[in-house]
C-alpha cells in the first residue's frame, strides 16, 4: 500500500559506483513520429506482436507513473546528478536519510546530459519505452494539481509526450486521494482540474467518450462525493467513468458500485497473498464492473523500515497468471517508477529491463489469448546482493527493514528463469558452485541457495551454447547498506 509522498529517495551504492558495471542497456525505442510495429528487438525471448494487434484487444495494460521520480531531476551527469547526490547517498539531502542508508536503492536508467527541453525529452523516452513493451498507457498519480507544482508540470509534460510520440498511447488520470493538495479540493475543484487535463486527446476515454478517472485510495471519499465529482465533470463536458483503486477492496467496493464503471485495488507484493485475485474479479464482474488487476514485482521501503518477500519473480508471475486465469479486463503494473517503494518496472540499473520483458510476455497472452512462441533461448537471473537477515554494521545505518506482517517467509535464493525453444541443459554457477540440470522447453524456474560471490547461467543444446548471462551484482557479506530488493539480469541484454 502507498502510505505517503516523499521527495527523498534512497541511494544505490555499488562500491561507490553509480552506473558503471550495472549491466543495463536501453530497451529499443520506437520511432518518435509514430506507433511501434512488430518488435524488432532480439532481447525478448519471443516476437512481440505489432502494436496494432495488441491494441485491438479489449484487455488493457497500464503502468502506474509516479511523478516524483522522472528520468532526471536536473539534467546532470548520472555520477553527480540529484539522484546520485541526494537520493542514493545516505548523506544526501543534509543527512536526513542516514539512519536507513538512503531513501532509494535504485534509480531510473541513467543517461548523459542532453540539450533542449530535457524534461519533455525524458517523458518521450518513457513513453517510447512503454510502447515498445506493448503497454497501452500510464495511470498517472496526481499528487498536486496546483499551477506552480512540479508534479502538475510533469503530468502536463507526460500528456504532451504521449501526444507527440504516439497518438494511441493513453494517460489515465489517477487523483491520489491521500495527497494533501488533492484532499484540499472539493468535488467541483477537482472536477475542474481533471476536465482541463482531459482536453488532451492523449487522456484515456472509453469508446462512448467518458473520461477514465481512477482515484487512488478511493475510500478516502464517499460515494456521494464521487457522484458530485461526476456531475461536475459532466457539466464541463468531461463525463467520467470511475475506476476506484481501493486499499481495502472487500470492505468498500459494494458502497461504490452505483458510481463506478469498474474496480481495482492496490494489491499485495508477496505470492502467498495472491489467492483472492479470482474472487475480486468475480465480485466485480458480478456487479457488472470491469476489473483492473494490479501486477507487481516486489516492494522494499528503507525509510519505512519494511519490505515484502516477493520470492524472486514468483510474485510477478503469480499476479500475472491469476489476472489471466481470472479474466481481468485491465492490468495496472504497480509501479512504473516508484523507486521509493522499490516497485519499479521501468528499466533501471538494478533490473536490466528484465521485469518489463516479462510483462511483455504475459500481456501478449492476456491480449491475444495465446502464449507467445519462444523464438530465442533466454535466461533471466534474479537474486539479492545480501542475505535477507544480514544487517550492515558499518556506514552508520541504524534503521533496518523487516518483513511486512503476513508476507512470505524471507528466503535467500537465486532464481534461474529459462525461456527455451526446446529442451536443453542449463549450467548455473552460484557463488563459485556449479550445477547442471536438464530444462524443458518453454518457461521454467529453478532455485539455488544464495551464496557470496558471482552468479552466472548458460544454456547448451547439442554442444552449442545458445544463451549465457553473468550477473554484475556481487553477493556480499558486507553490503554498504541494507538492500532487500531483487536484482535482475537477462541474457538477451548483455
- Numbering strands along the chain, what is their spatial order in the largest sheet? 3-2-1-11-8-7-6
Helix content percent band: 10-25%
| Global mean pLDDT | 92
What value does the Rg take, in angstroms? 22 Å
Number of helices: 12
Instruction: Tell me the total number of β-strands.
Output: 20
For the record, give the distance between the C-alpha atoms at the N and C termini, rounded to a whole number: 34 Å
Low-confidence stretches: 1-40
Strand content: 15-25%
Bulk shape = globular
Give the structural class.
alpha/beta
Q: How is the main sheet built?
A: 7 strands, parallel
Structure keywords:
single chain, 494 residues, alpha/beta, 4-stranded antiparallel sheet, 12 helices, 23% helix, 20% strand
Topology:
Blueprint: H1 51-55, E1 60-66, H2 82-87, H3 92-95, H4 118-132, E2 137-142, H5 150-165, E3 170-175, H6 180-183, H7 187-197, E4 211-213, H8 223-235, E5 240-242, E6 245-246, H9 249-252, E7 262-265, H10 277-286, E8 290-295, E9 300-301, E10 306-307, H11 314-326, E11 330-333, H12 354-368, E12 378-383, E13 402-403, E14 413-420, E15 424-430, E16 433-439, E17 442-449, E18 455-461, E19 464-470, E20 487-490
Parallel strand pairs: 1-2, 1-11, 2-3, 4-5, 6-7, 7-8, 8-11, 10-13
Antiparallel strand pairs: 9-10, 12-14, 12-20, 14-17, 15-16, 15-18, 18-19
